[in-house]
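Backbone-to-sequence.
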């Protein structure tokens, strides 16, 4: 459920919330990636207990983790944003991102621990 509120990443696109110096090379991919993660989170929730449950959970967690790691890369190495450029959205990388990464790690652990066992029938 936490990831269903990842749309707050769209704050990177709102003038006045972030500094005008925040590069679009960081803001646009981060905001759009979060929006896709929200849609995948909702799809995974709707797919629970259905035939595509595992596929939806894997797709959501792989995309969500890759999105966060790419935003981190863009912010630190890629376009190298200044911390002050985040403005009022400073809470996203300081509070939200660690929570999101922990929940992704927990979901990966769950998915891997419940991996279907390969059964080899003896002839």
């Amino acid at each position: 459920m936490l990831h269903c509120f990842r749309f707050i990443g769209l704050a990177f696109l709102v003038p006045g919330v972030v500094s005008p110096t925040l590069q679009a090379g960081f803001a646009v991919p981060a905001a759009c990636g979060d929006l896709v993660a929200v849609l995948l989170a909702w799809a995974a929730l709707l797919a629970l207990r259905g035939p595509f449950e595992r596929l939806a959970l894997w797709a959501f967690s792989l995309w969500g983790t890759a999105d966060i790691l790419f935003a981190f890369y863009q912010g630190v190495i890629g376009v190298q944003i200044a911390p002050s450029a985040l403005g009022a959205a400073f809470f996203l990388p300081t509070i939200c991102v660690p929570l999101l990464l922990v929940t992704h790690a927990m979901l990966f652990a769950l998915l891997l621990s419940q991996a279907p066992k390969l059964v080899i029938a003896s002839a």
